[in-house]
Amino acid sequence: MSGASGVNAMGGLEGAPEAALQPVSLQQTAKLHTRPVRRLFVFVLLVLLVSQLVVSLFAWSLAEKQFLPELERKAQTVGVSLANKLTRALGYGIPLDRLVGVDEFFGEVLRDNADLAFLSLTDSGGRVLFRSGEAPVAGPGVVTDATRPIQVAVAVNFEGRQVGQLHVGVDRQYIASRIAGLRYDIAIVLITSLLIAFEILWLVVTLNLSAPLRQAVEVMARMANGDFREYAAGGPGRSLGDALNRIETSINQAYADLLRLAAEPGRRLAASPLLAGLQRRYHFAEEGVSRPVADQRLTMVRILTVLFMLAEMLSRPFLPIYAGGLSDHGLGLSEGLRSSLPITAFLLAVAVAMPYAGRWSDQIGRRRSYITGALFVATGLAISGIAPEYLILMIARAITGLGYAMMFMSCQGLVIDHTAPRDRGKGFAMVVSAIAIAQICAPPIGGILADNIGYQMVFLVGAGVALVAAAVAARLLDNSITQAQHVPPVARMRLSVVSRNYRFWTLSLLSGIPAQLIYTGFLSYLVPTLLMGMGSTQSEIGRDSMVYGLVVVGLVPLFAWCAERFNTHALSVSLGGMLTGLGLLSLQWEASPRAVVFGIAALGLGHSMSISAQLVLVTRATQAEALLVGSGPVLGVFRLMERLGAAAGPVAAGLLVASLGAPQATVWLGVFGVAASVLFTLAFFLTGRLAPRSHAA
């Protein structure tokens, strides 16, 4: 009886998937469940946008009201301090009009206080005795004429009577520039907070709503096709998946019962045709135990990438300035080299550690490798902030580079783990977009923080962000370990065949290395050095550095599409390198913040054109070698050379600064970029070696 009931139960299952779950019904179910999620996401995002706009506009309106009284109070304080010093001088019996060196003393005070326009000392009758700066004929009180500085008068008293007045002028142009800077900072905070809030919101919605629903839809699709081998992962917001799992478990259990009954003596012959028919039409879990469907949570890679990039990039706008201000304890390094070596220490550690970090991540798991890397980064940043010693800073930057390599390779491994080969490009694009978001957000925020809390505290803030990244990874990632793919023996040998590939080495030496050398030498080192020398604040340096990320985010998709559409990858690489070099040459004619920003924009434009096209040319130029050793080792050699070029960039720029100065160092980097691009063009275009190898090769 039991055997008959089991057979009837399974027989009644025939045709059930097609009848119960038609493809049209499945699509309707997916739309019905994803539409509310999208609406909720848009609604919450609009609420965030409106609230942030309201707060930002309120802060905007307060900027001038709060800033002007503060400057007037500062001018009053400076005036009282100087008046007391003048009073002490009068105590030595020197008349007010016979004091010596007052103009020079006033000049030193003005040089130390950029917000002051002038200092003027008058006698009791109003006659000007000493003056420094652009000062009008002073009168008592505060001058409100918009064309003149704000003027504060402080009495100079001696032996109970007023013998003169000290007039302190606050520069209105400085006030206007500072208020504009504050409003720029408010706008930057608005943009970056919205971007970060968007990333967090996307993560929460994906993990708790979108991913469970997509999993449920995928399980339904498999069940509709007669596949009962995979189930949806459980958890909050996954009630639909849990219901499907119960149905699937009962079906697999019924099939397992049928197998046991069919194995009994006397039933095998009768059950064989039924089992054969079921196995042709359906796929059941082995031994009644199904496996989880792939967890569609790739968005967690995005937030993990944003966090560790933010932690490291917060200090980039001021790192050369901070390092250059530390004593090298008798090493005899020039200021340019002293300020560039910590950047090189970080980049060299990244270049050396990345190949080993990838293998280590495969062996111990993404979760442990990411958390370990985050702890390394937090340690390196904390040491940089706590111990302001040059040699300690060098060691700390190397530790930070090791952690950076671990976290980067862990995120890259997560993309491989959670994507099929056909979807891997989209997964890596998600990592690239996360890096671009960090490049937009981190430099301006780091500059604002440096202006307000100091360099060392920004390092500690970065360490805190790294610890947050570790906590998020501990919450999101599991402890599974990905088995490393077997590497054929030929892939372990030295790539001697690649060493004879003319086009590969032309790409590496004339495009890959110059692009990364100019990027780190100019953007990471020369930009902060140049702008600080031109009187820019840390906030302004951060805002200007942000231009690179904005250009790259906006133009990379466009140029990638154009290169694919018109097959102009080599032309893109050539023009991109030339535009980068020409942008830096602009400082030959105008060494100003405007020229530096132009160079940053040109760098972003050139990289938008060339970086993605480089990889296409490398894969085309090494098709034959890839058949022997695989594309991974070949691209690994190219990436290693790029990273070594990046490590050399700050040192090269520092040596040029030591001998020529920062503006001329930038010009020579531009000359190098143009020359490398011209040689690349000659090697590829004029020699006729540009055409990609045929697929038959």
Strands, count: 8
The coarse overall form would be: elongated
Give the biggest beta sheet.
4 strands, antiparallel
Low-confidence stretches: 1-30, 137-144, 483-494, 689-697
Strand order of the largest sheet: 2-1-4-3
The share of residues in extended strands comes to 5-15%
What does this structure look like?
By secondary structure, the protein is mostly helical. It has 3 domains: 1-108 and 176-296, no CATH class; 298-485, Growth Hormone, Chain: A; 501-697, Up-down Bundle (Growth Hormone, Chain: A), CATH 1.20.1250. The protein has 23 helices and 8 strands. A hairpin with a 2-residue loop joins β3 and β4 (161-170). α11 runs antiparallel to α12. The radius of gyration is 33 Å and the shape is elongated.
Q: Helix and strand layout, with pairings?
A:
Layout: H1 2-11, H2 16-20, H3 23-90, H4 102-112, E1 116-123, E2 128-133, E3 150-158, E4 161-170, H5 172-224, E5 227-228, E6 230-231, H6 239-262, H7 268-281, E7 283-284, E8 291-292, H8 299-313, H9 319-324, H10 335-364, H11 366-386, H12 390-417, H13 424-453, H14 455-476, H15 489-492, H16 496-499, H17 502-533, H18 538-566, H19 569-585, H20 593-621, H21 623-629, H22 631-660, H23 662-686
Parallel strand pairs: 5-7, 6-8
Antiparallel strand pairs: 1-2, 1-4, 3-4
Helix pairs in contact: 1-6, 3-5, 5-6, 5-8, 5-13, 8-12, 8-13, 8-14, 10-11, 10-12, 10-22, 11-12, 11-14, 12-13, 13-14, 13-18, 17-18, 17-20, 17-22, 17-23, 18-20, 19-20, 19-23, 21-22, 22-23
